[in-house]
Each structure stands twice: as structure tokens, then as C-alpha cells.
Design goal:
There is one protein chain. By secondary structure, the protein is mainly α. Helices cover about 55% and strands about 0% of the residues.
């Protein structure tokens, strides 16, 4: 269970995260009634996100895309780069590792 201090911090962060799309929506001249149509979500979802309620990532992304600011997500979720494991496999090839402490039997 989370302590009261952590819960308060999470609530404050969610409120701040909700404020950003709200401010951008207002700057762009969208109402809480027309943005849901553009984002293909409910008006209630817009209210919930802007009030700092928890929401799915998909809902937030839909809102940001509808406002034309989805590229701002690159700051927190950059496009995936090459997998470090794929690069390792490519450079060395697969190698088997034996179990420590066990000796191989001689035939």
C-alpha cells in the first residue's frame, strides 16, 4: 500500500498533467465539447483527464493527437531504437552457457 505522502504526490502530478492539455486546448480555441469529437473519445474523458483523474495512455494520446501535439510525447516516449539484445546476438551469435558447478560427463 502506498503511503499518504506518495498518494498526495501522485494526485499532484496527475493534476499537473491534466492542466497541460487543458491549457493547450484553450490556447487552440477548442471547447470541451468539440475536442472529444476530434479525438473520438467521450466528453467525460476530457473532463476526467483535465481534472487530473487517472486515464489510459490511449486516451491521453488521442487528446494530444487531436490537438496536433502528439510529437510532444517524444520527450517521454522516444521512438524505439535498435534492441540492445538484437545487436548483441548479431555481433556474437547465440552462445550457450553451462550451469556453474556441474561438470560435463566424459563419454
Amino acid at each position: 500500500m502506498l503511503s499518504a505522502g506518495i498518494e498526495t504526490s501522485i494526485a499532484a502530478l496527475l493534476a499537473g498533467l491534466g492542466q497541460c492539455p487543458r491549457d493547450q486546448r484553450i490556447r487552440l480555441g477548442h471547447s470541451q465539447e468539440d475536442l472529444p469529437k476530434l479525438a473520438n473519445i467521450s466528453t467525460r474523458s476530457i473532463h476526467h483527464v483535465e481534472a487530473g483523474g487517472s486515464s489510459t495512455t490511449a486516451t491521453v494520446v488521442k487528446i494530444l493527437k487531436a490537438m496536433g501535439i502528439a510529437d510532444d510525447l517524444k520527450a517521454i516516449a522516444p521512438f524505439p531504437s535498435a534492441s540492445p539484445m538484437a545487436a548483441l546476438r548479431k555481433s556474437k551469435g547465440a552462445q550457450r552457457v553451462g550451469v556453474p558447478g556441474k561438470k560435463k560427463r566424459e563419454a
